[in-house]
Design goal:
Elements lengths: L2 H4 L15 H5 L4 E8 L2 E6 L4 E7 L7 H14 L4 E3 L5 E5 L5 H8 L16 E2 L14 H15 L10 E4 L13 E6 L11 H4 L2 H6 L6 E6 L2 E6 L9 H5 L12 E6 L14 E8 L6 H17 L6 H8 L1 H8 L27
Helix pairs in contact: 5-9
The structure holds iron/sulfur cluster (2 copies).
The site of one iron/sulfur cluster (SF4) has 11 residues, from loops.
Length: 358
């Protein structure tokens, strides 16, 4: 591997190769097996006989400089300065020396949790929320904090049937992996954007605003001789795209915005195709700062899954085996008209058989 020397410009991020642990670099692509040793710890063994140990800890994603400094000091002390963040914002220390595992865990547990490997819940991947994004229907990091406070025991142990991946996206543009996670919390707007006709002609470019709507709901119009837009509310799906390009069309609504919960998604593996999440709970009002109704609903789904799924069955595989009617029975979630998929291209997702499994 000499990719680094072949790079001809300095555009883009530095090549990852220079950040690899020496043991990973020496054994790149030549791994024999890996195995979990205990919650939060696993080992990769190479064909050469080399081993590299990983210790995984939780991070709250939006992290302070103090937290980063604590992590880097521990990496310098125990893992030769090597650590990485996974796509779900778990922090992984890469250790060449097995004897450093327990002292590292002891120091990590003074300010965070160690776990998230094997049959557990790992960190929740999430989006920007009220902290940063203009179109959020709910908060992201706040929701993740309160949900993980409730589910921490499933992060630090491996007592679930299989791994359980959670995601939060604060609007249906879903920058988080809500379509492919076992349980997903998705912020939803429920009202169309409000148009500020006074400022819109000064703030927004009309053709771009019209083109921004995926459902053709935004149309050009004029009021008292001034160009502006109107919204066909029957076509609006409350996505907030128009607000992204036109700040005179705010969509956030303190009374009507809230949270929906989706279940059963996962990415593909060697045996199965990817599965997309499906709607479980259509709407729970925002109730910050601790969203007790959302944490209760997520915990209920986790506990029913933990009790009823077979070993090594993912959430979606379990639901497919028992059938959706049984899922609603077991979880006690009410089945409503909002669970019916009436999108005009939904034909391919309809159940086409009369068989029901209970
Ligand atoms: Fe913004 Fe929506 Fe992405 Fe959240 S999911 S960060 S609101 S675009
Ligand atoms: Fe169109 Fe979405 Fe704006 Fe509704 S919220 S008008 S669907 S871009």
């Amino acid at each position: 591997m000499s990719v680094t020397t072949e790079r001809r410009t300095d555009i883009g991020p530095p090549h990852y190769e220079q950040f690899l642990h020496p043991i990973i670099k020496a054994n790149y692509g030549k791994w024999k097996y890996h195995e979990g040793l205990k919650p939060g710890v696993f080992v990769h063994v190479a064909e050469s006989g080399d081993s590299i140990y990983t210790v995984r800890a939780a991070s709250p994603r939006l992290i302070s400089t103090d937290f980063v400094r604590k992590l880097t000091a521990l990496a310098d002390k125990y893992s030769d300065g090597y650590l990485r963040f996974t796509s779900r914002n778990n922090v992984e220390f890469l250790l060449g020396n097995k004897d450093n595992i327990d002292p590292l865990i002891k120091e990590l547990e003074e300010f965070t949790l160690v776990g998230g490997t094997g049959r557990s819940i790992s960190n929740i991947v999430h989006t920007q929320g009220w902290v940063h994004c203009h179109s959020s229907a709910t908060d992201a990091s706040g929701l993740v904090k309160v949900v993980m406070d409730e589910l921490a025991e499933y992060f630090t142990s491996m007592k679930l049937p299989h791994k359980l991946r959670l995601a939060v996206a604060c609007c249906l543009n879903m920058c988080g992996a809500v379509h492919a996670s076992d349980i997903a919390i998705l912020g939803v707007h429920r009202t169309p954007p409000r148009i500020d006709h006074k400022n819109l002609p000064n703030l927004c470019e009309i053709p771009t605003t019209v083109a921004s709507c995926p459902n053709n709901a935004v149309r050009p119009t004029s009021i008292e001789g001034r160009s502006t837009v109107k919204v066909d509310e029957d076509k609006c799906m409350y996505c907030g795209n128009c607000f992204t390009v036109c700040p005179a069309m705010p969509i956030a609504d303190a009374l009507n915005d809230g949270v929906s919960i989706w279940v059963g998604g996962k990415i593909s593996n060697a045996r199965t195709e990817p599965m997309f999440t499906k709607l479980a709970v259509p709407y729970i009002p925002n109730n910050p700062p601790r969203w007790p109704e959302v944490t209760d609903a997520v915990k209920n789904i986790v506990e029913v899954y933990a009790k009823n799924a077979k070993p090594y069955e993912r959430m979606g595989e379990w639901i497919n085996r028992i059938g959706w009617p049984k899922f609603f029975d077991l979880t006690g979630i009410e089945f409503t008209k909002y669970h019916l998929d009436d999108f005009r291209h939904a034909g391919t997702t309809y159940r086409r058989s009369l068989q029901n499994r209970y």
